[in-house]
Amino acid sequence: MSESSDPGEDGAYAVDRPTDDDRAQADPRNLQKMSRFVSSFARKSGSYLHPQTEITEFLVIGLAKHIDEVGRPLCPCNFYVDKAEEATRSTWICPCEEMQRWKYCH
């Protein structure tokens, strides 16, 4: 994902749209599962998703990919030295503590 260095007229930065290659990084069943989860959690908890839908779609892809890799939806916005070890904790499992506290997802 890349951003341009200058915001558009509306003040938002242009963000690449997820491609089929991006989506192919995760099992389609987990993509669908996490898409439903993210939407449902936001609606039920009063949380806000990113206003640029491309960011939310990349988030869903990352969550699904982590389910494929370690069996848990680790927040894809962080770097983990050991994803498997991190998956044993709940701090960065979606919805992560930051999202639960601030009601906003990247």
List the helices and strands and how they pair.
Elements: H1 20-23, H2 28-45, H3 53-70, H4 83-86, H5 97-102
What's the short story on this structure?
This protein has 106 residues and is mostly helical. Helices cover 47% and strands 0% of the residues.
Largest sheet: none
**Count of DSSP helices?**
5
Residue share in helix: 40-55%
CATH homologous superfamily title: Ferredoxin thioredoxin reductase catalytic beta subunit
Question: Which regions have little confidence, pLDDT < 50, spanning 5+ residues?
Answer: none
Rg on CA atoms, Å: 14 Å
Question: How would you portray this structure in words?
Answer:
The chain is globular. The two termini are 14 Å apart. The chain has helices spanning 20-23, 28-45, 53-70, 83-86, 97-102. The chain has 106 residues and is mostly helical. Helix 2 packs across helix 3. It contains five helices and no strands. It has a single domain (20-102), classed as Alpha-Beta Complex (Ferredoxin Thioredoxin Reductase), CATH 3.90.460.
List keywords for this structure.
5 helices; mainly alpha; about 110 residues; Ferredoxin Thioredoxin Reductase; globular
